[in-house]
Amino acid sequence: MILSTDARLRALLGEVLALPPARVAAFGPDTELFGALPELDSLALGNLLGAIELRFAVTIHDDEVHAEHFITYGALAAFVQSKLAG
Amino acid sequence: MALTFAGQTPWRLLIVPALFDEAPRLRRFTVEVMRRLAGAGIASALPDLPGTNESLAPLAAQTLGDWRLAMLGAARHFGATHVLSVCGGALIAPATLPGWRYAPVSGGTLLRTMLRARLLAAREAGRDETSEALLARGKADGLVLAGLAIGASCIAELTDAIVPDAAQRDITHEQLGVTSGGLWLRAEPGEDAAQADALAAIVAVGLKAGPP
Asked: SS in 3 state form for A23-84?
């Protein structure tokens, strides 16, 4: 079964945050991530970025490593989509 | 110091732990795998790497080379017949000991993750650091990454450390056949019974099947 980018990203977030699928399915564009969730600290985000690179076959550059891309689910999804668009 | 489980079979597994920031996140899983192996009569030992856990040595003085020697010594001390490494442990496992490497990862990847964490935190605090500058500094003076003081030689080694050709077989996370992701991804240390069951089973079956 081929999942959409959004579905795959939600699945990855579910793994990182140890949340059941139903909870992650409820994430909206304004759902706060980095900075709001105490467990999603800079190290967790470092791991998330590595996992995004592997799962979506993209390379994330230093100058893209800014909190603003990860502050909400919407921002994160937009970031991944832009990486995939090349 | 080491955590050991006794066994009744002739197999004795040296367990080489995950490294640096991954160590606490993988520890529970590692111990759960050992517990299951013990249930199958297989003895195992999980040493503390010098500079970690109960070790009194400073982490900043450690190198991957030191850790490789320590794992060779531990293998000898425990009479290990096989080795199971977890994640970055593959970088320091005794090369000639047969066994398995679960989710092996290169030093570069470990370093990149920790550097990114530092970049994010620095930028949040209004300091613009670059990974090139941090690496250069790290190779000269050592660096604090993920709250760990890592020495200059270790930083240099990590940059180039790749999973070597060795007597072990690799087990990818996908080969565990579980739906949950690798525990190194979790923001908080966690556990997963299905993953521990799966890895212990692969190792136990492999030991009983004998050399390939």
From this structure: HHHCCCCCCECCCCCCCCCHHHHHHHHHHHHHHHCCCCCHHHCCHHHHCEHHHHHHHHHHHH
Taken in order B176, B23, B66, B148, the sign of the CA dihedral is positive
Q: What is the pLDDT of residue B128?
A: 84
- Number of domains within chain A: 1
Structural domain span for residue B114: 106-162
Provide the 3-class DSSP secondary structure of residue B182. coil
Residues of B in contact with A37 (CB under 8 A): 187
Same-domain pairing of B60 and B139: no
CATH code for the domain of A62: 1.10.1200.10
- How much is the ipTM here? 0.90
Residue with tokens 């060779």: B72
B63: domain CATH number is 3.40.50
Q: What percent of chain A has pLDDT over 70?
A: 99
Cβ contact (<8 Å) for A18 and B187? yes
- The per-residue pLDDT for B212 is 62
Question: Looking at the structure, do residues B145 and B192 belong to the same domain, yes or no?
Answer: no
Express each pLDDT in B34-77 by its tens digit: 999 999 999 999 999 999 988 888 999 999 999 999 999 999 99
Shortest distance, CA A63 to any CA of chain B (angstroms): 8
Alpha-carbon distance of A79 to B112, in angstroms, equals 19
Q: Domain range spanning residue A41? A: 5-85
A50 interaction partners in chain B (CB closer than 8 Å): 109, 112-113, 116
Same domain, B131 and B34: no
- Is the minimum CB–CB distance between B116 and chain A shorter than 8 Å? yes
